[in-house]
């Protein structure tokens, strides 16, 4: 992005659902060049009234669970019904040139070519906060461009599931049948975030094992507090490869939206998510600045505290004074 | 505390396990009077080498689960064996004059009178961070005074279970038999912190229901990731009223300590806890100062963001500049 962006044209392009404009706009808000900050803010302010219209679906799963195949199957089904589908990703470990998730669009060959679909790899960056913030702005831009469903995928590096959970309405955990103790394969704390667990690869010889895994997950979910107030998380099976069970997953997600819209939880949570996002970014920026200023001293105090050589109160006093 | 504290005498008194000195020292570190800060820090620095010797046990439970009776039964058993037992509390909702947990020592009449026991109500204060920090210092003072076991109780206001979990080695969740779906009575996220669930009031007509509840909790625990690496959380029953099963609970806690000491997790976690405590207090003080300076503007921006009138990026720029 060498030339200064022509904002009025860009905004008009987004509102007209022009994919090139959308891609260019995302590049602008992802840019960390100081000269792009003001136009990026102006762009976000301009499109804000056009946002909020999509169903936001988060997706995570263990490697090998078939996330790409699942997204392709679900996306193609929805595109075939005239829905516009955007696919984004949060992967703080990726770099645009490296082996980024979704970077290789050939993983979703059909979907990438469909005129109703828009696929965008994870923004690069090492800080999860920064990557998530930029993905959230990309999500809003997709909404302004008229996308009906936005799938946000994560590979589950660090706390990236939590980040995706906080920017989506529905959170789906994709699994495959394991070796009996199904919990083993799931990262600590992730199952607690899920509105549904979908056991993929329920096909061929694997069908029965997938069904058993589903029963096991149903039991697990029974023992957990639901993440979404008033929603009882469900376990399902599907075969993304054979496009079986995808319809049922989608019905569940639509049912979720309808039920939560009626109860008011849907809108209330989006407002909460806005404030939480603001609060956590504010905190991380304020702390980042503080650490940049006092990094060495903090490190010295933290080491003394860790080794039991200095009480925490003394270390804090030394850092912060009175 | 009107007179300036005689520090050398206070420190000597603590090391000699004098209860009056210990109580006075805790009052000093709990004080928020500016003139007490320097001597409090000096005191903490002086006693730091004498800390670390106790087994730190956190305890929470639904109201009515019989926490006081349980602490009295466990405490009396340990005191009878010559152990020195301190009981502290984290209750951010209490005030010293109000109906503070443990404030009414008559709830643990026998233990309060035992020469091996030391009971201290929750420090007052509205911020959980502040209350927890002062309790943590009181815990270190108790260790310096030679207490072998320190029980830290919480009533579970806000995130107080997490606060107690981060200052203890073992975390015990006390429950009673419920109405079938045992999970209903437990606060979201709390069961995930537990190293053991103890179903109390397993006596009289209630014995069978308590045993069934234990079976149910055992299932729940099977489906959760253990909080402590390498430790499989257990469910037990007891009757604190009849002093039945208390011995078994204590054996479990000692077994926990032995196993984790051998694996190195015990010491490693204490070091981590030190650093986490330092980090979270540093963060809360830095953010408190920032909010004190910019409170009104933050509030205005947060509202605009919540109502969808301002993009988060614009609000942050307005607050933080470039």
Automatic annotation (TrEMBL), chains A, B:
- List where the protein spans the membrane: none
Keyword vocabulary terms for this entry: Hydrolase
Keyword check for Hydrolase, yes or no: yes
What InterPro entries does this protein map onto? GTPase_ArgK, P-loop_NTPase
Q: List its EC numbers.
A: 3.6.5.-
Broad EC category: hydrolase
Query: Which GO-annotated molecular functions does the record name?
Result: hydrolase activity
- NCBIfam families, A to Z: lao, PRK09435.1
Similarity comment: family membership: Belongs to the SIMIBI class G3E GTPase family. ArgK/MeaB subfamily.
- What is the name listed in the Swiss-Prot or TrEMBL entry for this protein? Methylmalonyl Co-A mutase-associated GTPase MeaB
Q: Which organism is it from?
A: Coraliomargarita algicola
Gene (UniProt) = meaB
């Amino acid at each position: 992005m060498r030339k200064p962006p022509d904002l009025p044209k860009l905004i008009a392009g987004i509102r007209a659902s022009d994919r090139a404009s959308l891609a260019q706009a995302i590049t602008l808000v992802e840019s960390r060049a100081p000269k792009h900050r003001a136009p990026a803010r102006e762009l976000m302010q301009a499109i804000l009234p056009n946002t909020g219209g999509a169903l936001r679906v988060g997706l995570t799963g263990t490697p090998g669970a078939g996330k790409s195949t699942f997204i392709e199957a679900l996306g193609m089904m929805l595109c075939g019904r005239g829905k516009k589908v955007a696919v984004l990703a949060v992967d703080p470990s990726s770099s645009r040139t490296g082996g980024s998730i979704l970077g290789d669009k050939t993983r979703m060959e059909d979907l990438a070519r469909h005129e109703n679909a828009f696929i965008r790899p994870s923004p690069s960056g090492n800080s999860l906060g920064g990557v998530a913030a930029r993905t959230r702005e990309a999500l809003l831009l997709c909404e302004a461009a008229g996308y009906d469903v936005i799938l946000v995928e994560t590979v589950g590096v660090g706390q990236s599931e939590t980040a995706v959970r906080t920017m989506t309405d529905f959170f789906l955990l994709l699994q495959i049948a394991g070796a009996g103790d199904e919990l083993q394969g799931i990262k600590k704390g992730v199952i607690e975030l899920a509105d549904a667990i979908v056991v993929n690869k329920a096909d061929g010889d694997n069908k029965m094992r997938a069904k058993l895994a589903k029963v096991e997950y149903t039991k697990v979910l029974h023992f957990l507090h639901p993440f979404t107030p008033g929603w009882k998380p469900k376990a399902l099976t599907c075969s993304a490869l054979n496009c079986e069970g995808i319809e049922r997953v989608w019905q569940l997600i639509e049912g979720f939206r309808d039920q939560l819209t009626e109860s008011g939880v849907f809108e209330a949570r989006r407002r909460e998510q806005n404030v939480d996002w603001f609060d956590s970014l504010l905190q991380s920026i304020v702390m980042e600045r503080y650490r940049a200023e006092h990094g060495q001293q903090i490190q010295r105090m933290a080491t003394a505290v860790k080794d039991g050589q200095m009480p925490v109160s003394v270390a804090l006093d030394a850092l912060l004074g009175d």
